[in-house]
Amino acid sequence: MEHTLRVFASIACAILLLQGVARAESFDVAQPASKSGQADPHQGADRLFGEIRTYLAATDTGAVSRPRDPASGVLAAASDPPASGSSARAPSYIDPGVCAGCHTQEAQNWAHTTHAKVFTLNPRNALEGQQCQACHGPASEHLRNPLNKTTIIRFTHNGGTPIAQQNAQCLTCHRGGQRIFWSGSAHEGRDVACSDCHNPQANFSARGLTAKRSINETCFQCHATQRAEFRRRSHMPLPEGQISCTDCHNPHGSTTRPLLKANSVNEICYGCHAEKRGPFLFDHAPVRDSCTNCHAPHGSNHEKLLVTAAPLLCQQCHIQPGHDALLMTRGNMAGSSFPDVRLLGRACANCHSQIHGSNSPAGARLQR
Ligand code: HEC
Ligand code: HEC
Ligand code: HEC
Ligand code: HEC
Ligand code: HEC
Ligand code: HEC
Ligand code: HEC
Ligand code: HEC
Ligand code: HEC
Ligand code: HEC
Questions:
Q1: CA distances from 309 to 60, 287, 349 (A)
Q2: Can you give the pTM of this predicted structure?
Q3: Which of 9, 36, 96, 277 could form a disulfide bond with 131, CB atoms 3.0-4.6 angstroms apart?
Q4: What is the pLDDT of residues 143-163, one digit of tens each?
Q5: Range(s) of the domain holding residue 333
Q6: Domain for residue 262, yes or no?
Q7: How many domains would you assign to the chain?
Q8: Which is the closest atom of ligand 6 to the Cα of 247?
């Protein structure tokens, strides 16, 4: 539906554009020259934009959070009066108490939520005072014809209301704040709806009105890969409920990919692992660059979330001639006749224990 509208809108625009250009040309021919020898360049363009605006108003692009024409299901233009003689009626708000008459269960569930408390006890403006209709939109046409899907804004899957319109409805009150970068974010771009993560219809969680009991379960609905990663033998205590995805990510959008809450990976990690921030007398370059050079943030089957086992981890970068570059032989493996210290236990870190940086005057090689 939404897609069809967009296609229609772009075709309409293209036609208008061509017509406009043609008209602007004929305009030049018909009135060849003013005194200065120039035709008024604005007149044709004004008319053209006026027409485009009228068409756009009938699409999502031009009509964020405007009521819909209940007959056609098309978004009504803000300034368009309802076409006289047609059966179309602009929906209007009805007494907020009426919904509970038919939707008893929904009204009871909703009554315990933050929204209900604010909207019924202390509405800050007229829209909040509309209660259910603050989200679901004016309901007069819904009362006339509840079975027609276009008479009310539905947030349920396959409810028929375009996702952009659903989200715009929430954003009338929740623009800005954490959602300042919502527009253009990975989730917005993939048509994820506010209601995929939030269910304001009832309290399913202790806070945040999340759709599932916890933030993590809410994310796991779609991110099965990350859920599996957090099941690996080394992981931060997320499945145990100590931290959540939103400690590191802002699902509403961010300037740092992928939806990170801070300006860099390291800044996020320093938030909890402050001792890794330094400053150090001797830095280890890859640590300053990014913790993800060596650690997998969601989990790993190696010790300490490492992306690969030491000494290979270190040998990815340290290949200069010397003890660090020597390939370990089978005879050096743990349990063989000549076990090599570089393969046992913490491997290279047996000696280079200050791998994140050293503050010892003699710590240039990160051993102390
Ligand atoms: C006269 C009874 C009646 C009243 C009053 C009423 N509704 Fe409904 N509503 C219905 C019926 C019946 C349906 C089921 C339509 C369907 O399943 O397609 C419905 C469906 C809905 C849906 C769509 C549910 C979904 O599956 O997504 C929403 C949202 C809704 N109503 C909200 C409201 C709100 C808000 C009010 C008050 C402003 C209200 N209704 C008042 C009868 C009513
Ligand atoms: C803060 C916005 C908001 C308010 C206020 C609100 N709803 Fe909803 N409603 C939603 C969302 C979002 C959903 C979709 C929930 C989901 O994911 O299934 C929904 C779903 C519904 C449904 C579909 C059935 C269901 O439970 O999923 C009905 C019916 C409904 N609402 C009626 C009402 C009524 C009646 C009120 C007032 C008593 C109300 N809503 C208040 C946002 C709201
Ligand atoms: C008419 C204004 C309005 C609309 C529309 C609205 N909200 Fe709210 N919302 C509020 C107010 C007011 C609060 C409570 C005070 C606050 O946090 O600012 C709130 C709180 C919330 C909270 C935090 C709840 C908590 O317990 O911490 C969430 C999540 C939320 N809204 C999601 C939504 C979603 C999703 C939609 C759309 C389906 C929506 N809101 C539509 C006004 C609105
Ligand atoms: C991908 C999942 C996801 C989507 C999509 C999403 N949210 Fe949230 N939102 C969350 C989570 C998780 C929290 C809880 C954050 C916390 O408690 O740390 C939250 C918190 C909130 C809060 C309360 C905190 C605050 O910022 O005041 C509001 C309000 C809110 N969301 C509104 C929205 C609106 C409006 C949309 C749609 C434009 C939306 N959310 C889309 C996951 C999501
Ligand atoms: C309804 C499904 C859905 C839910 C629920 C959901 N996501 Fe997503 N998420 C997506 C989709 C789709 C993408 C885009 C994937 C792509 O483009 O490869 C995405 C991408 C992401 C990305 C990567 C962004 C990037 O720039 O590559 C992060 C991080 C993310 N989601 C975090 C979260 C968090 C945290 C939650 C829970 C609060 C959550 N998601 C809940 C569907 C979802
Ligand atoms: C400790 C911080 C942290 C936590 C907790 C966390 N992430 Fe991430 N996540 C990251 C970092 C850092 C990256 C970037 C990885 C990179 O650049 O290699 C990332 C990347 C992602 C991506 C992009 C694809 C990928 O795997 O690189 C998605 C999707 C994602 N996270 C989802 C989630 C979800 C869902 C949760 C909760 C179950 C979660 N993350 C918890 C730090 C975290
Ligand atoms: C919200 C707080 C938080 C953030 C942010 C955070 N961590 Fe952690 N991290 C923890 C906790 C809690 C533990 C478990 C500590 C314990 O068990 O003693 C942990 C443990 C670890 C461990 C040791 C794992 C093991 O198996 O012993 C590593 C490595 C680690 N984190 C790396 C990172 C990296 C890299 C980042 C940034 C992408 C990061 N952490 C961000 C809280 C956090
Ligand atoms: C050059 C690779 C490398 C980089 C980059 C790196 N680490 Fe580590 N990290 C390690 C190794 C190796 C261990 C295991 C050390 C051991 O066995 O004593 C470790 C262990 C840890 C531990 C658990 C043990 C402890 O020291 O508390 C945490 C937490 C940790 N790293 C956090 C971080 C953070 C945060 C960053 C980014 C600022 C980071 N690491 C960057 C290699 C690295
Ligand atoms: C991503 C690449 C990378 C990884 C992985 C890495 N390092 Fe480094 N390391 C460097 C760079 C770059 C320097 C700085 C070299 C310089 O200043 O000449 C350095 C410096 C060092 C130094 C100081 C030596 C000197 O010449 O100043 C030691 C010791 C060291 N690394 C040990 C390790 C160990 C042990 C590991 C595995 C736990 C490791 N490194 C993993 C890139 C890496
Ligand atoms: C038995 C202790 C020990 C082990 C195990 C060890 N190193 Fe060293 N490493 C040292 C000492 C001591 C120095 C300092 C030599 C110097 O100052 O001249 C050093 C120096 C270095 C240097 C600085 C450049 C150089 O060659 O002088 C790098 C890089 C390095 N080690 C990497 C590694 C890597 C990678 C591993 C694991 C494969 C490793 N080391 C295992 C003790 C060790």
A1: 52, 17, 12
A2: 0.87
A3: 96
A4: 999 999 899 999 998 899 999
A5: 275-350
A6: no
A7: 3
A8: 5
